[in-house]
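User: structure tokens for RNA methyltransferase, please.
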Amino acid sequence: MPGAGTDSTKPWTEGGPVIILVEPQLGENIGSAVRAMGNFGLSRLRLVNPREGWPNPKAVTFASGADRILDSARLFPDVRSAVADLQFVAATTARERGMAKPVLGADVMAGEAAGRLAAGEDVGFLFGRERTGLYTEEVSLADAILTLPVNPAFASLNLGMAVAVVGYEWFKLASNGALPFAPPDRSLQADRADLFAFFDHIERELETAGFFRSPEKKPSTIRNIRNIFHRQNLTRQDLATLHGMVVALAEGREGRQGRQSAAKAARAAKKGESEPRE
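Assistant: Done. Predicted tokens:
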């Protein structure tokens, strides 16, 4: 859903856990992570010693309009200082670290974070370097481990993708799973009399068009046609559209027949003019 889902008239959702990116290597990856944050209502970003320095113009490009998150990002020299004011920190990793810490998936961790935030605590999710992830010493600074059910043989996620998956679970919980839009209201259900009127219309035009070639099969064919429409749970708007379609087809047939008759008459007249007179 690139680009098309942006609507500047809607309120910007903010808050949620702090997202902490530890020594991100590329501005592009920071921007992609920030775009994911914007998608899922996460607005607080902390950067620990980004390799290419800060600010980074490539991050702006890849953030795709989530500039406000970049503008308010905070910079830290190390993980210890980045998490010092947080009451609960979850370290993301795909590898077992041999530590006696709770290990939670993103959905369960979202619930844990929501409960703590509601209680007045501040929460942070720690994401490691693109190539090596978090160091074991950095994981030891966290209260819990956040991991995902990924393929054990290929568990490496792009930084932006990892933030997106975690952010999705957070926002799904925070928004009660509300989708951004719903299908439009359906027209009122067609009543039986409207449906019968349509059957009369279409059967009359089919008869005129010579559709019922076999008198013996006509009753069963009509039943089949009616059953097709019965199964569709048609609305009044549906029937209005179908009536219009049948009218257009009938008028098109009549127009075609008229053009054919006119052409035939013109050919006859031309032939009469070309015959020699005695």
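User: Anything notable?

Assistant: The longest helix spans residues 236-274.
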